[in-house]
Amino acid sequence: MKKIKVLSVFGTRPEAIKMCPLVRHLASLSEVDSLCCLTGQHREMLDSVMDIFKIKADYDLNIMQARQTLSSITSRTLLGMDAVIEQAKPDLILVHGDTSTTFAGALAAFYHKVPVGHVEAGLRTGDKYSPYPEEMNRSLVGRIAELHFCPTVNNLRNLEREAVPGDKFITGNTVIDAMKTTVRPDFVFSVPELNELDFANRRVIAVTCHRRENYGEPMREIMEALRELALTHPEVELVYPVHLSPVVRECVFGILKDLPRIHLIDPIDVENMHNLMARCSFVMTDSGGLQEEAPALGKPVLVLRRETERPEAVKAGTVKLAGVKKQDVLALAEELLTDKAAYEAMAHAVNPYGDGHACERIAQGILWHFGLASDKPADFHA
Ligand code: UD1
Ligand code: UDP
Question: Which residues are the active-site residues?
Fold first, then answer.
């Protein structure tokens, strides 16, 4: 029997965290020849994920440059993918989410007339500049892809509203699959500073912030809010693994460096991150992934953005949009610190994004598409 050759293409930390469980699952199937191509859009932050999931890439375009532009990521990926596709001759290329790697990977596949499967399809804000450039990336990949693996029914409806053609599936998000292996009550952090934190008696807040549309004034306002929070609340310990982007680091260290109770650390690997979230009091972030992970762990999330493409957990009551104004961010954080009822109302575990079986559904969807499974996978229901 000829195997289906599936080439998974990814390049940033969040794509790797969400694609590695799928790559591993596909590799276990007798019907699939699973290959993996990294663009290397991120370097250290990507390699750390590959190490945790013990996956070796078949190809690595190694495109990252310091302060890279969107055009350089896109053009270097496109050019690099030509040779990879010609050599690998895949039957299907899988891309994930909404990064520039995702868009350029899908476009390269299209130029070679290779069908595309889009994992984490159908997320939308409706504003092409927010998140930027992700909203446009994922919309364009939606037009290119033949298979759309939507985490939620809401994502599927977005594609239907846009009359996007192709096979559509509701699978849940693969990040919930990843969390089955990363979160452990007996986990010991590999970062000494995290092991020294008194999670039981202090209010530990896990923070991340990196988005391009927050560069400049919004990020400064967010950092000012964090600064005031730590200075005025002695019960707080702020733990912030700072993204390696120089633009982000200049802003964050410029405002928060050397302050009491603010722990600015380098990015931590995904096991340390998931277990930090599992033990913290609440999360403040502009990250997409954290908005999906923290609710599954029963942790309230304040989203440091003006909008979100993930309304499911907002509806479930565990996530609030804080915006990017200092006073708004501060007010919501103080409410969580001082109002027990408000905290309890947000601190319940919900799983609108998955049940840990997304990879199986995606794999079955691929087999079904190629005529190797008789049934379409059953939809994920929250
Ligand atoms: C990218 C994605 C964004 C995603 C984010 C996850 C695009 C346009 N943006 O944004 O959707 O949410 O990744 O983190 O695709 N750097 C390093 N080492 C690393 C990683 C980054 O030094 O391991 C530095 C480099 O100087 C690089 C800069 O960070 O130029 C920015 O990286 P880039 O991928 O362009 O943007 P992100 O903000 O990370
Ligand atoms: N993450 C991590 N280490 C960190 C910060 C985040 O492993 O220091 C994980 C986090 O748990 C989530 C993913 O990285 O799974 C989110 O990535 P990021 O915030 O960079 O991107 P986004 O989700 O916003 O696209």
Answer: 98, 120, 134, 210, 212, 243
Neighbours of 220 (CB within 10 A): 17
Closest listed ligand to the CA of 288: 2
pTM for the full predicted model = 0.98
How far is the C-alpha of 313 from the C-alpha of 318, rounded, in Å? 6
Contact 368, 320 (CB under 8 A): no
Question: Which CATH code is given to the segment(s) 192-347?
Answer: 3.40.50.2000
Pocket of ligand 2 (CB under 6 A): 13-14, 17, 208, 210, 241, 267-270, 273-274, 287-290, 293
Q: Where are the domains of the chain?
A: 4-173+354-369, 192-347
Q: Do domains 4-173+354-369 and 192-347 have the same CATH topology?
A: yes
| 4-173+354-369 CATH choice from 3.90.800.10, 3.30.450.40, 3.40.50.2000, 3.40.190.10 | 3.40.50.2000
Q: What is the pLDDT of residue 349?
A: 87
For helices 174-182 and 13-27, give the axis angle rounded to 10 degrees.
Answer: 80
- Alpha helices per DSSP H over the chain: 13-27, 44-53, 70-88, 100-111, 134-144, 153-161, 174-182, 192-195, 217-232, 246-256, 270-279, 288-296, 312-315, 326-338, 340-346, 358-369
Predicted pLDDT at 296: 96
Measured over the CA atoms of residue 12, residue 14, residue 18 and residue 24, the dihedral's sign is positive
Counting from 1 in the atom list of ligand 1, the atom nearest the Cα of 246 is 26
Mean pLDDT by 10 residues, the chain (382 residues): 94 98 98 98 97 97 96 98 98 98 98 98 96 97 98 98 98 97 95 95 98 96 98 97 97 96 97 98 98 97 97 96 98 98 94 96 98 97 93
The residues that bridge with 352 in the sheet, in sequence order, are: none
